[in-house]
Amino acid sequence: MCRFLVYKGRNPILLSDLILNPTHSILTQSYDCRLRLDVRRPHNGDGFGIGYYTSPLLSPEPCIFTSTTPAWNCVNLARLAKKTTSSLVFAHVRATTTGALSESNCHPFSYHSLMFMHNGHIASFQTIKRRLVSALRDEYFLMVEGSTDSEWGFALFLDTLHSLGVDPKSAPPEGFGHQKLREAMLGTIRRLNEFFSEAGVTEPSLLNFAATDGHSVVCTRYVSSRDDEAASLYFSSGTRFHEYKEGGFYRMERHDRGQDLVMVASEPLTFERGDWVTVPTNSVLTINKQTVLIHPIKDQYYQSDPSYRRSMKFAEEKGMVGRGPGDELPATEADGQLKSQLENSASQKLQALVSAA
Amino acid sequence: MCRFLVYKGRNPILLSDLILNPTHSILTQSYDCRLRLDVRRPHNGDGFGIGYYTSPLLSPEPCIFTSTTPAWNCVNLARLAKKTTSSLVFAHVRATTTGALSESNCHPFSYHSLMFMHNGHIASFQTIKRRLVSALRDEYFLMVEGSTDSEWGFALFLDTLHSLGVDPKSAPPEGFGHQKLREAMLGTIRRLNEFFSEAGVTEPSLLNFAATDGHSVVCTRYVSSRDDEAASLYFSSGTRFHEYKEGGFYRMERHDRGQDLVMVASEPLTFERGDWVTVPTNSVLTINKQTVLIHPIKDQYYQSDPSYRRSMKFAEEKGMVGRGPGDELPATEADGQLKSQLENSASQKLQALVSAA
Amino acid sequence: MCRFLVYKGRNPILLSDLILNPTHSILTQSYDCRLRLDVRRPHNGDGFGIGYYTSPLLSPEPCIFTSTTPAWNCVNLARLAKKTTSSLVFAHVRATTTGALSESNCHPFSYHSLMFMHNGHIASFQTIKRRLVSALRDEYFLMVEGSTDSEWGFALFLDTLHSLGVDPKSAPPEGFGHQKLREAMLGTIRRLNEFFSEAGVTEPSLLNFAATDGHSVVCTRYVSSRDDEAASLYFSSGTRFHEYKEGGFYRMERHDRGQDLVMVASEPLTFERGDWVTVPTNSVLTINKQTVLIHPIKDQYYQSDPSYRRSMKFAEEKGMVGRGPGDELPATEADGQLKSQLENSASQKLQALVSAA
Amino acid sequence: MCRFLVYKGRNPILLSDLILNPTHSILTQSYDCRLRLDVRRPHNGDGFGIGYYTSPLLSPEPCIFTSTTPAWNCVNLARLAKKTTSSLVFAHVRATTTGALSESNCHPFSYHSLMFMHNGHIASFQTIKRRLVSALRDEYFLMVEGSTDSEWGFALFLDTLHSLGVDPKSAPPEGFGHQKLREAMLGTIRRLNEFFSEAGVTEPSLLNFAATDGHSVVCTRYVSSRDDEAASLYFSSGTRFHEYKEGGFYRMERHDRGQDLVMVASEPLTFERGDWVTVPTNSVLTINKQTVLIHPIKDQYYQSDPSYRRSMKFAEEKGMVGRGPGDELPATEADGQLKSQLENSASQKLQALVSAA
Fold it and tell me: How does DSSP assign A194-245, residue by residue?
């Protein structure tokens, strides 16, 4: 029952406008998820992390700040957020599923200029762990510091990227390119599915991943099942994200000249329902500059019929369904309504991108 | 929206049978309060503490273990609870109202052989703080380490006890006696009311306190208002508190030979409704050996009519109403039903004690 | 046995060039003070803090980052320092003298745009505490969150500044002015001396304070004694502070056009002895833009004879003497050599300033 | 540069008499190692842990308390130590060599009734890690939570014990027996040496391990080198360990009826030089009830000539040489003097045991 958030903008945003102030910010989500269906553990109080890129003059690595203090209690987070701006931010609140409470287990993880986070869980991880570990090149095997399935997932992502002929340690000045990152992400999921298959794991895995090299961002909404719904994922894009009314009431403004910023989030940050578009299940979302591209992931778990209703039960039991404060519809319905939502509330351009994918 | 728990028994209890295992243990309460009415802060994740007395051979002071890690994440707490037994235990989970997240702000507080905790809040504490500080003898003024209203309340309790002619630093071998402790507790509340009155504070204070010297225990359920309900408080007594069914299903057993153990708690620990008796509002409960005495606190906020219904609104807004898992009645009704509950479910002896008070 | 460091520059510095990388950085000082004479507690492992001002567009308050994790273990500190630049920085490592280990007890303290830290200790603080507390206006009395003598010293500083006719809450755009800050600092010391005198405290206090409003900085090197030496304090100024040789070898460069940056520190950060000038005992150092002014504090503890040798014993016992890595001379000698050092290594301008004071 | 301590007694000891009060207790060692030769990291402030067995009525597992707060700052440790007694205690203070600061990385590690700790380091661990990981049965591969070489060493120990035909999860009522534990320990070292050999690692490893099942204890003093000295290790045994003079002056009392307690420690806890016997390099010490047995480890790194002087350089550089406060001799000399020490200060019985080994 984690939650994550990605911000990518032409201009930097003050972190507090992103993670502290909005009525349903990720900080609020850390203790007030709207649908606390995961009765085993009703909040995200097991640590958090933010990662952001600074001026390229200060080196291409992101700055990572993690803590095992619950996000709502971390005075340092509140202070830093009010004083830090960035145009590419990852944020994550964590509820322990595997891995002890430890800073080493907090997302986002980073490796040189790359950053990675995960919302979900790798099913029967103990059963496939040895396969995964054995499949890695030494440098990624030795990189893992903590004990989460997600960090091993990152190691696998790096190893897969490496296999594509690039060196994850040394990105070109403009990054690896969004195609390369997307390819590595899809390869990561493919390899995980191979491990599941070899090990006879049939429980679905919830694999909402996000990765970036500081230039492009790639996010998945994915479940290794034909019939179950994935963990929730939304995006919003526009010209300006700003507080239109005091008290944390933020809205996305849109002008016709295209997007200046994109946010991707497990749960919408605001009550403005029209601002948030559901990412279709089993698809990969890419942000190239501020342009959003969505591609379906067409593997054995793909449903070509867009009206097929996946079951919410599994994702809800895992606490992985978040909705916007104004959104009372089940996510599957929301999915079904994607097309009309796009027509009504998001830009025509976005729709075009989705259709093209 | 804190919660507290007191255990006093003829025999020691394994701490995990008290604070970890019961279905609705104080640990569970730390993240799953049944009625999350305090929307500002829906859990008790701001630290916790336990205090317990050990063999008198090891000195009369209690052992205190506190942490700012949420109780549900503290592996040390879980490990210690499985390996520690005591016949007099205080436990507390905290939600910040005043005072930063800091071990110095975790209850229970201790001073030599005395231990103290608070569930509630002192109204407009900033307004009366200087009066309270000025009223204290130097040793209690200088004793305060943290920044909570509750610790200053403890300092006032010690100062009041001191005024009764005893030295809080050096208890007699059998303690100060339950009358002395009760007198000090009532004096503490009286002095707080005087500060409120002098400073013109009219907002009610929720003053559920618990204090012990390692021998007797005194607890209050009190609100400085004629019309509002106090924070919830329950007690249970019997011969044995044990797990009758695997999975945390605990029950209080009772045999005719009187009580062997008493528990007092902000919220019942079990689904066994008949095991828990509501402590009447504005009364003081004393445990002398394993005998429970309840006295009304007859001051300006006393309601002599037992059928008077105080308003739940204030206490609920403060997140101070906890109920048993099987108990859907508002606390005021529960109060109204005290007599019949006693007749039905608790021992006749208890009823006698309450009537006598 | 704390240590502190002030940086003020025309241009921002990368925090890691200040607090992480130099051979004898404050981080290194946190576990490797050259003269571990305080045998009771041989390091500064009780928390740390940094405070820095950001772009004025982001509000005039400083950003404060504190932690109870020893500085050398705080991965967040290391990560942030590599990604944060500022032209006015305070840094502090702490060894507990009074006050529990708690983030509330970490320096620097802040109040709106003001920041404050202390290296030393207020003698017999328990004896004067009530006097100090009673002397404060309510807003500063109520501001204190922790339990250190130093934070109460800050409250007294604010109260003294308030008495000078300004509102500490709302600084003018260019700050309160260096005269005002200096006057408030001197008033703070005067009032402390009055409390000592009234309470009959004769043990010397070590009062190295630093305060800033984001524009000017004022630091004291002070001891309330005629015969004992104060805690050590040094400064360095020049055109550029840079790593001239890999491995943390930093040096202050100077060109004839005056200073571009000033650092004040309990211990020199580098082996470059000529770069560091000892601040004379019982004087106040002011940084106005990048210009350093030093004034003697002429009260009952002043020694007008510049050749008078104060005893190092007291300050050394308190662990308050830090020296540069290349400096084996006792601090009193170093003091005696101030004039020649100035002639040899620091700019003529600095000497003029000191003489004028 | 860690330190560890083992206590095994016929009677329980109050933990504070072991880890807090002695002049040179492990708590003091955490910040005041006498010979701070490891200039890279001059203290043991990276967390600590204690493990102790309680009444067998409370289950055979040890109680583990670990913290990343430096031992000297952990108020919980001080409070618990004053209130906890045990007749079999492990204590460890840690200086990071590999593995982040995290509770998962604190020793002692435990697995059901078994407990394990390590003082030293496994050389080139990254180089042999994959071999070690691949050699483990799944249950021990999956057990590892942290990122230290030491925890993987424990996993290897469990796997080796398993290979001896016992199930580490379920010890017989009287434990596995000291022979079995010793055999597993020697097997662990042998397998590590095989990994080094296969991987071409020639840097010596410092392998002072301690393991127990709650009944017997086995400790090694070992280095994988013919010419270098191992990390220091001492033991003391007698009838009573008590404070003969206020201020932490403890002494081991001996009466002719044999030992009632044994302590094994990286550094002597007291100034009483005659109380501490150096464990010979490359030997294994077993405590069966309160009887000490010492066997040489006769492998490729064994020196049969007892007068051979190993070089202290390597162990000192690693910060692994601790001596008694009254002991200014290099450890090798102390080793050479083992025989005479035994004749003078330790019981004849002990000498006999060593000779027999």
Answer: HHHHHHT--S--EEEEEEE-SS-EEEEE-BS-SSBPPPP-EEEEESEEEEEE
Pairing between strand A3-14 and A261-265? antiparallel
Domains and CATH numbers, chain C: 3-350 (3.60.20.10)
Dihedrals φ, ψ of A277, to 5°? -110, 135
Q: DSSP code of C103?
A: G
Distance CA C307, CA C284 (A): 19
Contact present, A212 and A112 (Cβ < 8 Å): no
Which residues on chain A are in Cβ contact (under 8 Å) with C76? Answer: 65-67, 76
- For residue D124, give Cα distances in angstroms to A39, B348, D38, D192: 45, 72, 18, 11
Q: How many CB atoms lie within 10 A of CB D102?
A: 26
The answer to whether the CB of B235 falls within 8 A of the CB of B292 is: yes
Tokens 């510095």: give the residue: C13
CB of C3 within 8 A of CB of C47? Answer: no
| Contact of A261 with A237, CB cutoff 8 Å | yes
Using CA atoms, how far apart are residues C120 and C233, in angstroms rounded to an integer? 11
Strand, coil or helix: A78:
helix
Tell me if A146 and D142 make a contact (CB, 8 A cut-off): no
Identify which of B150, B130, B281, B99 has the alpha carbon closest to the alpha carbon of residue B195. B130
Residue B130 forms contact with C (CB below 8 Å): yes
| Residue in the structure block whose two tokens are 């830093």 | A80
Q: Provide the residue type at D266 as one letter.
A: S
DSSP D106: P
CB neighbourhood size of A355 (10 A): 10
Is D63 known to be catalytic? no
Centre a 10 Å sphere on the Cβ of residue D344 and count the other Cβ atoms it contains.
9
**Distances in Å between the alpha carbon of D151 and those of A121, A312, B220, D156?**
25, 40, 49, 9
Cα separation, D304 vs D302, in Å, equals 6
Predicted local confidence at residue D175, as pLDDT: 96
Q: pLDDT tens across B279-309, in order? A: 999 999 999 999 999 999 999 999 988 789 9
* Beta strand segments in D15-62, E: 48-52
Q: Cα distance from B83 to chain A (closest Cα, Å)? A: 21
Q: Is the overall model pTM greater than 0.90, yes or no?
A: no
Chain D contact present for B64, CB below 8 A: yes
Segment A300-336, tens digit of pLDDT: 999 988 789 999 999 888 878 765 444 433 333 333 3
Q: Is C102 on the interface with B (CB under 8 A)?
A: yes
Would an 8 Å CB–CB cutoff place B131 in contact with chain C?
no
* Residues from chain B contacting residue A37 (CB–CB below 8 Å): none
Instruction: Decide the pairing of beta strands B249-253 and B283-288.
Output: unpaired
Bridge partners (DSSP) of residue B212 are B115, B217
How far apart are the C-alpha atoms of B32 and A70, rounded to whole Å? 16
CA A133 to chain centre: 24
D39 Cβ partners below 8 Å, 6+ apart? Answer: C32
Size of interface A-D (CB pairs under 8 A): 40
What ipTM describes this predicted complex?
A: 0.85
pLDDT tens-digit series, residues D67-87 = 877 666 678 888 999 999 999
- Contact partners for chain D, using 3 or more CB pairs closer than 8 A, are A, B, C
Cα separation, C275 vs C269, whole angstroms: 10
Rounded CA separation A241/D192 (Å): 58
- Annotate B162-223 with DSSP letters as a single string: HHTT--TTS--TT-S-HHHHHHHHHHHHHHHHHHHHHHT--S--EEEEEEE-SS-EEEEE-B
Can you read off the two tokens belonging to residue B86?
A: 């005591």
Cβ separation D104–A103 shorter than 8 A: no
d(CA C30, CA C91): 11
